[in-house]
Amino acid sequence: MTHPHARVTLHPDFRVGTVDRRLFGSFVEHLGRAVYTGIYEPGHPTADEHGFRRDVADLTHELGVTILRYPGGNFVSNYRWEDGVGPARDRKPFLDLAWRTVEPNLVGTDEFLQWAEREGVEPMMAVNLGTRGVEAAAALVEYCNGEAGTRWADLRIANGRTEPYGVRLWCLGNEMDGPWQIGHKDAHEYGKLAAEAGKAMKLVDPAISLVVCGSSAMDMPTFGEWEQTVLSYTYDLVDHISMHAYYEEHDGDRASFLGSGTGMDRFIRRVVASADAVAARRRSDKQITVSFDEWNVWYLDSRFPGESNLPIQRDAPRIIEDVYSGLDAVVVGDLLVTLLNHADRVPVACLAQLVNVIAPIMTEPGGEAWRQPTFHPFATTARLARGEALDLRVEAPSYATARHGDVPLVTAAATVDDDGALAVFLTNRGDEVVEVEVAHAGAVVTLEQGRQMLADREPAVAGPEHAAKVQRECWSTVDVARAVTPGSGGSTTIRLAPESWTAFEGRLARA
C-alpha cells in the first residue's frame, strides 16, 4: 500500500535560534477555580503551611512550566493590587467585573510571588492599565523590586518580605484592544498610556523588561493597525509585543482544527512584520520580539456563554473548565511545533491557563488532581526541546481547509543542544499513515525513543476517568524499531500514525 510521502531536510548548521526556556510558560488568573481550589486550597490533604496544594505544584513541575503570568488576564484591568497585600484577615472581598465573581482576596501579590519563588518558577506580572495607570503601575514595581527606604518597598517589608522579589518581566495591561476589557482604549489612547506607564516603571527599576499589548486575536478589526500604532509610541521602551490566540473545532470542521498551527504561524509572521515595519520607519536596529502569553485550545464559541452572560457568583465558581480529547492534544502539540519554529522571535509563551480553567491540570476541591490529555505534549516538549531550534525544510502534500486555506499535511520542528541531544517533533494532520523521509546529509541522526499522541473521535467527558482513558488509548511509547527505518546516504524514514503528534529523542552528530 502506498502512503502519502513527506520530506524533511535537517542540517546541524541551519538554525532558527535559541529555545528560550520561557517559551514553556503558563498563566494563573483570578478566574473560576484557577487560584482557589486550583493552586491554593487551605485544608486540602496536600496543602502546605501556606495553603497551596502540593499535588498541583508537583504536576506544575512535571509539566515543565518555567514562567507564570499573573494576575490576569481580564481580571487585572479592574484590580487594585494594594487591596491584596497585608494581613489577609484585613482584606475586603470585592466584585471582579471581568468575570462577575466576588473575589475573596486571600491570594494577592505576596502570596503568589512567594509561591512561585518556592516552586522555582519565574513570575510575569501584569499591571492594570484599564481602570488605573501610571502611578499604580510604578508603585507595584516599587513594592515588588524596591529597596528599603521608600514608601512601597517599606510596605512590602512591613508585610513580612524584606528582600525585593526582583520581578523582571512585566505586562503593560491586558488585551486593551478588546471592547470586553474593563477600561478598553483605542490604539492611540493605549499607546500613550503604555509609554508613560512603562517609562515610570523603568525609572523605578531599569532592569525590568516590558510587554506591550498586541492584538487579542488575528481576526480583531484593528489587527495590524493596532500593532503599528501602539509600537509607534512604545518602540524604544518595550521589549516584547503580546499575542493571544485560541483554537477550537468549529461545527465538526476537523480538518481546519488540525490545521490550526498554520493559522498560528501566519499570525506570528504578520505581527513580526508589523513590528519590523515600525523599526524600518524609525531606522532602528532594535528588534521587538513576541510574548505569546495566551494560547491554547479553548471552545470559546461553542461552550462559553460570554462574560456579560455570567451571573454574579461567589466561592470560586466553575467557569471555562473545558475538558479535552486526544484530538485537542494533537492540536496543542502542533501549536508547540509552530512556536519552536519561531524561536528566534518568540522567546516567551504562556499556555493559558495552568489549572482548571482551559488547563492541562484539573482538580477536585478536597480531592485529587489529574492530567488532561493536553498535559502530555506540553510536558514532553518542555522536557525535550533544549538548545537551539533547527531550521528545517518541510516538503509535504497540502490539503484544503475552510478556515486556513491550504495547509501542509505534515509539520516538523527539531532542537539540538551543545551535547548533541536531538529532539524531533512531527505532526500528521491527515487521516492515513504518512511516511516522512528525514534527509540529513552531512550528519548522523539516531532516533532512540519516542512518544505519540493519537487523535480520537469521542467527545471529551469531565473527570479523571476520561482523562485516564485517553491516556491509555491515545498516549503511548513509539515502537522505534517499527516506526523508524535508517536509510543509506544520510536519510531516515519515519512512519507517522494518522492524525498524530510524535516526539522523538535521539542524537545528532556530524558525519
CATH homologous superfamily classification of the largest domain: Glycosidases
Structure summary, number of beta strands: 26
Label the structural class.
alpha/beta
Level of helix content? 25-40%
Radius of gyration: 23 Å
Mean pLDDT: 96
What is the highest CATH level, the class of the largest domain? Alpha Beta
Largest sheet: 8 strands, parallel, barrel
Tell me the CATH topology of the largest domain: TIM Barrel
Q: Spans with pLDDT under 50 lasting ≥5 residues?
A: none
Provide the β-strand percentage band.
Answer: 25-35%
Whole-number total of structural domains: 2
Shape: globular
Which second-level CATH architecture of the largest domain applies?
Answer: Alpha-Beta Barrel
Strand order of the largest sheet: 3-4-7-8-9-10-11-12
Catalytic activity: Hydrolysis of terminal non-reducing alpha-L-arabinofuranoside residues in alpha-L-arabinosides
Protein name: non-reducing end alpha-L-arabinofuranosidase
Keywords: Carbohydrate metabolism, Glycosidase, Hydrolase
Family: Belongs to the glycosyl hydrolase 51 family.
